[in-house]
Specification:
Order of helices and strands: HEEHEEEEEEEH
Structural class: alpha+beta
Helix content: 25-40%
Number of strands: 9
Strand order of the largest sheet: 1-2-8-3-9
Oligomer: single chain
Largest sheet: 5 strands, antiparallel
Radius of gyration: 25 Å
Distance between the termini: 60 Å
Number of helices: 3
Length: 211
C-alpha cells in the first residue's frame, strides 16, 4: 500500500513539475525581441521563434513600428510591447519623448488543419519505495529510482483556430518638456516601467540608450 501511495505521489509531482516547466516555457516564448520568423501552415501553439517587433524608418526622426504576437497576449499587452520598441528607438536616437499617430491594434484568426501524427516517447525517472536492512536487523524505507518509458501519443487530425495580434504605430521623436499624455509619451519612463512590469524580460532587451 505504501509503495502504491508513493508511486501515486511521484506521478503527481512529475505532473506538477511538467506544468511548471510549461509555464516557464510560455514566459520564455514571450520575450521582447525582434521578429525573425513567422509560423508556416499548418501551425498551432506558441514558439519563442515567432513574433516580435519590426520597424521601418520614415525619416531621420520618425518610424513605423509594429509588434506581432501569435497565440499570446491580449491586444493591450501587444500594444504595450509596441510602445516599448518605440521608446527604445527614441532613446537610442537621442530623443526623450515621442508622439504617436496612425495607431492600430487588431486581432485576426487563421485556421490550420493539423494532420494525424505521433508524439515521440521519452524516458523519465520513476521513484519507488523499498527497504534497506541495517546491521542491527532493522529495516528502514528508502527511495530508489528507475528509468520509466513514457509512450508517445497518437494525435488525430484536427483543426485549430490561431490568433494573430498586431499593433502598429507611426512615431515622431521630440524633446518636448510637455507632460506625457494622450499621444505624447516619455520614452525613458516607458522603458523603466517595462522593466518593472515585465519581470521575465531580460534587462538588456529594454536597454536605455545604447547600453
Amino acid at each position: 500500500m505504501k509503495g502504491k501511495l508513493f508511486n501515486l505521489l511521484s506521478l503527481v509531482a512529475i505532473a506538477l513539475g511538467w506544468l511548471g516547466l510549461s509555464s516557464c516555457s510560455s514566459l520564455i516564448g514571450s520575450d521582447y525581441r525582434a521578429e525573425v520568423s513567422r509560423p508556416q501552415q499548418p501551425w498551432e501553439g506558441t514558439s519563442k521563434n515567432w513574433g516580435g517587433y519590426s520597424d521601418k524608418p520614415l525619416s531621420p526622426t520618425s518610424w513605423q513600428v509594429s509588434y506581432r504576437c501569435y497565440n499570446e497576449f491580449t491586444e493591450a499587452q501587444c500594444r504595450q510591447l509596441c510602445l516599448l520598441r518605440a521608446a527604445q528607438l527614441t532613446v537610442q536616437h537621442g530623443g526623450s519623448t515621442f508622439v504617436v499617430s496612425e495607431e492600430k491594434t487588431s486581432t485576426r484568426f487563421e485556421y490550420s488543419d493539423i494532420p494525424a501524427h505521433e508524439t515521440p516517447g521519452f524516458y523519465t525517472k520513476e521513484g519507488y519505495q523499498t527497504y534497506k536492512q541495517l546491521p542491527n536487523g532493522e529495516s528502514i524505507p528508502v527511495v530508489q529510482y528507475r528509468n520509466q518509458w513514457v509512450k508517445g501519443e497518437s494525435i488525430p487530425a484536427h483543426r485549430v483556430k490561431n490568433s494573430i495580434i498586431e499593433s502598429s504605430m507611426t512615431i515622431q521623436l521630440t524633446n518636448s518638456s510637455q507632460p506625457a499624455g494622450n499621444n505624447h509619451y516619455n520614452a525613458t519612463q516607458l522603458l523603466e516601467d517595462g522593466r518593472k512590469n515585465w519581470p521575465h524580460l531580460p534587462k538588456s532587451a529594454l536597454a536605455l540608450g545604447t547600453e
